[in-house]
Write the structure tokens for this entry.
Amino acid sequence: MLKKILIANRGEIALRIIRTCKELGISTVAVYSETDRDSLHVVFADEAVCIGPAQSTSSYLKIPNIISAAVITGADAVHPGYGFLAENADFAEICRDSNLTFIGPEPEAIRKMGDKAFAKETMKQVGVPVVPGSDGVVANHDEAKKIAAEIGYPVMLKASAGGGGKGMRIVWEEKELQKAFQTASAEAEAAFNNPALYIEKFIENPRHVEIQVLGDKFGNVYHYGERDCTIQRRHQKLIEESPSPVITPEIRNKMGEAAMLGCKAVNYVGAGTVEFLVDKHLNFYFIEMNTRIQVEHPVTEMVQNLDLIKQQILVAGGEKISELPHEPSGHAFEFRINAEDPENNFRPSPGRIEYLHFPGGFGVRIDSHVYNDYVVPPNYDSLIAKMIVWGTDRSHAIKRAKRAFEECTVEGIKTTIPFHQKVLENETFISGHYDTSFIDKHFNNLKR
């Protein structure tokens, strides 16, 4: 059993990890930037170390500062959460070289599955369906043009080392390709210090469905069903649910088996997510793997009745997976409450929270680090809370979500709460028959 874990993150995920550590009897160390001095993860951790100024490049991304904090506090493990250094193979390797257990996969697995082109080829080799496209990165515009002509337009350019919609462009016809290639490559270079792109067929009107996986050091790999992450804006997820309203038990098992095959191919240990596009005929195609815990992991926790963070920690400490998967029980949604103005291009809305009231009641869970009078800083991701609701079925969960949002009040800043309330009244959403263009189709009144 690990004895003291440093959490190399901030906000709600840091607090989430601290809660599980307390239940396991493990001491915790919080790290924080100067602007996060009054954050709840600092308050509730057993120890806290300031690692730099507000800019993440000088604090939460500053590997020497984090390692030093772990050493001086006597931590024996590091949990990276999500974002920041969570999928940084060099950080995982430095932790290992510093005799710190990295609560995540081995650096080699992060590198293999973090490189989208390599991950795609790995999946192809074990028989997992992939979107038609380049076998690896494309060298230049001319090569991209040749491949696009072979697979047919529209095509998608993607950053090989990236995620979150950066370095990604849809190209509808050949005359758009050169400019899109240059723009996506430059964006990838700026975001990931790697301009490499790959190209694949653009699947029109798809659903985005991901499989939660967990592996241990004994070679066991399990999948815990799917999460439907189709409600997105500019490739940023806003609402997630499990089970998917369109995935049948047969397709779920096929997707799960495919995800586990890929994990076993790279000896994957820890929690991870294998992401697929699903077309209208329920054909599914691998797109990428996230080698970390996901923002939306509580959705799976609610329908599987397990603590994924606990399993992460136990597996990293050398134990076998103890909570095995089963068919989903009931239905769960996660709504991301961001400090953004949905009526104004979802513009970030940092500032002081003048009044806050979160909902409660059976089947409602709030994961958040904010409180009355908390100042949302402009330096980081705009997520301030996640509202997760569970119901006996999808219809029940929607009704419960509506009730919960009626109780949810955040004053002083703009949030995505009104947007979620409108979605919950939308007949297409209620039907479950929507795709990744849902927001463009049904909320075109929003300035984007």
